[in-house]
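Lab intake sheet, docking and co-folding queue.

SAMPLE TYPE: protein with bound small molecule
LIGAND NAME: NAP
LIGAND FORMAT: SMILES
REQUESTED OUTPUT: full 3D complex as structure tokens
PRIORITY: normal
SUBMITTED BY: R.K., bench team

The fields below were copied directly from the construct record.
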Amino acid sequence: MTARTNRRWLVARHSAGEISEANFRWVESPVPTPADGQFLARNLWFSFEPTQRFLIAPADPAVPDSGGIPLGEAMSTIAVSRIVESRHPEFSPGQIVHGHMGWEDYSVTDGKSFSPTYRVPDGIPPNWALGVFGLTGLVAYFGIHEVARPKRGETIVISGAAGGVGSIASQLAKIHGLRVIGVAGSAAKCEWLTREAGVDAAINYKSEDVGPRLAALCPDGIDIFFDNDGGPLLDLALERLRQGGRVVLSGATSRYAVQPPPPGPGSYLNLVMVNGRMEGLLGRDYIPRREEAISAMLPLLRSGRLKSKEDVLVGLREAPRGLARLYAGENVGKQLLRMDGPGVDSERTPDLARPDALA
Ligand SMILES: NC(=O)c1ccc[n+]([C@@H]2O[C@H](COP(=O)([O-])OP(=O)(O)OC[C@H]3O[C@@H](n4cnc5c(N)ncnc54)[C@H](OP(=O)(O)O)[C@@H]3O)[C@@H](O)[C@H]2O)c1
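RESULT FIELD (auto-filled):
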């Protein structure tokens, strides 16, 4: 590529099942020019989200506006990027921003999307801006501290516990003084949870019988269930919810773009019996409060009590693999990609996942 080439991954095939490179087409084209009200950004790091599956799913005749990104358009991602040219009144060249971009070297945008583009605070490394301080971390932080309303000593069960959201939620719950049971899909994930994240117990739902394990680990029931998965574990947790129990709905990876939609939880009526509460939260709505989460988590990261667990691929070529890894359950921690090519200054995009990074 030359400095003025824009390497891009376009959506080439919609599919409901397995995600692979065959869903995308690699092209190289000239770097675009921003129009009035737009800016041009050099993409530095990408985040991968299970909900990106909706972007490459076929249209569902029963759901208006379904069908994701039209064929031939760039795949969309949440990214941290550096503005190189601006015709937008609120953004200037040199600023580092968090927003929706394409799987490409350079994106042109007006900054408006499902979640609005915002400036990354000075000194926050891009990997943290997307992970622990991005939507991932906001959902974990506010999900635990506000929606779950935890009391010390309570028992929390977390699904997808070794993923991006789950790895932060598990550690924050432990730091808050809860008894934490993490549920994850591999021995390596369970080992990370018990050895590194410090949770009290981990269940490998792919090799263990989850119901009896939960009964043994939570003989008095579950106070809080933090759900990233939306699968059968939701029912098992609802059945075991204690008086005043809470279910925090972060997401439902097992249900995304699955047709026909799987049935909902059968045991929800137990919420009546225990005066329980089930409540979701949307990370985007907490963006205005991100400074609160950063102030609370930065000291924890610096001291090493909170670890930003990241799974980092390098180079735009790897983008399809990043998304596929989520659905193959291969990522441990937050799945990210660090971009390559001209205009990506390693000094400005350091891998600062160390606890002392900002000390
Ligand atoms: N509410 C919000 O605003 C918000 C914001 C960000 C994320 N979220 C949600 O939080 C959840 C976790 O997101 P994340 O970005 O941290 O992803 P993640 O948990 O890091 O990655 C996805 C994980 O899901 C599991 N998985 C893969 N295929 C699955 C399937 N078919 N059924 C069930 N589980 C499967 C795998 O873990 P195992 O091997 O452990 O199964 C995989 O590692 C998602 O549901 C996401 O949509 C919500």
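REVIEWER NOTE: The first strand starts at residue 5 and ends at 11.
SIGN-OFF: pending second check by T.M.
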